[in-house]
Write a structure and sequence with these properties.
With about 110 residues, the protein is an alpha+beta fold. About 35% of the residues lie in helices and about 15% in strands.
Length: about 110
């Protein structure tokens, strides 16, 4: 059984919990912690899940937001293959397309 893992980047949610609604609010707070990022870099950091993230930035974000890395990064299964055994009933719902018939009043 294979499953592909991904994650949900929750920086925007955690910022909103702290009443921080502008990405530019992070620029000076990061700078206070020795992290120099442009407004554009911070915007991308907030709006897109990062593929790479330095530990220094992660620690600074956790300090600013009063959270742990687990609060920022929520692992999730993106694609999961399910093994099926012969004769076993499926636990999931199976929806198959069905042809519709429209009947007009007075006609058969």
């Amino acid at each position: 059984m294979n499953k592909k893992m991904g994650y949900r980047w929750r920086l925007r949610d955690l910022m909103a919990d702290q009443q921080m609604f502008q990405t530019s609010n992070l620029v000076p707070l990061l700078a206070e912690r020795g992290i120099t990022l442009s407004r554009e870099q911070v915007y991308r950091l907030v709006t897109q899940p990062p593929q790479r993230l330095s530990m220094d930035v992660l620690v600074a974000l956790c300090d600013i937001l009063g959270c742990s890395p687990n609060d920022l990064i929520e692992p999730e299964v993106v694609n999961q293959q399910i093994r099926k055994t012969v004769g076993a009933e499926s636990d999931s719902l199976s929806i198959e397309p069905r042809r519709s018939v429209i009947r007009r009043p007075g006609r058969k």
